[in-house]
Amino acid sequence: MTSRFWRSVGAVAAGFVAVVVLSLATDQVLHMLQVYPPWGQPMSGGLFGLATAYRIVYTIFGGYLTARLAPHAPVRHALILGFIGLLPAFGGVMVALSKPELGPLWYPIMILVSGVPCVWLGGVLYRSRVASSAPSSVSTS
Questions:
Q1: How many domains does the chain have?
Q2: Does 47 map to a domain?
Q3: Is position 48 within any domain?
Q4: 141 lies in a domain?
Q5: 104 vs 83: CA distance, rounded Å
Q6: Predicted model pTM
Q7: 132 HSE (CA, 13 A, CB side)
Q8: Given a cut of 90, is residue 134 above it in pLDDT?
Q9: Range of 121's domain?
Q10: How does residue 1 score in pLDDT terms, banded at 50, 70 and 90?
Q11: How many CB atoms are located within 10 Å of the residue 129 CB?
Q12: What string of H, E and C letters represents the secondary structure of the chain?
């Protein structure tokens, strides 16, 4: 296996870990600040909306980070992250179906359907940032 392959794997892994760590750390902080109820107690729908909002932001960041670290084809790497993320997101939907007391079904469905578009957006944002910072080949004189 080439070093380029391992850099690709590392880029996708870094994006995945960033999304998971940021999401869980924010959950923990919000529990500690008593914005969320103690672990194991039900949350209201509005709090699931809050969790959805910051997870969307973190997922866009994960796509951006993956694209930034990718050795080539940054948006493709971000999309690979999104498709890998479908597996745990689908698992979340399955758990929600079997244990409705955990919270509203819309929440894991929203995580499932927003993941790929969010990482794609992160990849595109990185690509546009790189394109706008590249020196122009057009002469102004």
A1: 1
A2: yes
A3: yes
A4: no
A5: 24
A6: 0.91
A7: 6
A8: no
A9: 3-130
A10: confident
A11: 13
A12: CCHHHHHHHHHHHHHHHHHHHHHHHHHHHHHHCCCCCCCCCCCCHHHHHHHHHHHHHHHHHHHHHHHHHCCCCHHHHHHHHHHHHHHHHHHHHHHHHHCHHHCCCHHHHHHHHHHHHHHHHHHHHHHHHHHHHCCCCCCCC
The string of pLDDT tens digits covering residues 14-34 is: 999 999 999 999 999 999 999
pLDDT in tens, 55-111: 999 999 999 999 999 999 999 999 999 999 999 999 999 999 999 999 999 999 999
Q: Give the length of the chain.
A: 141
**Looking at the domain assignment, is residue 140 inside a domain?**
no
Task: Write phi, then psi, for 28 (nearest 5 degrees).
Answer: -65, -45
Amino acid at 118: C
Distance from C-alpha of 18 to C-alpha of 34, rounded to nearest angstrom: 24
Residue of 99, 92, 73 lying closest to 8 (CA atoms):
73
Measured at the alpha carbon of residue 62, what is the angle toward residues 89 and 108, in degrees to the nearest 5? 20
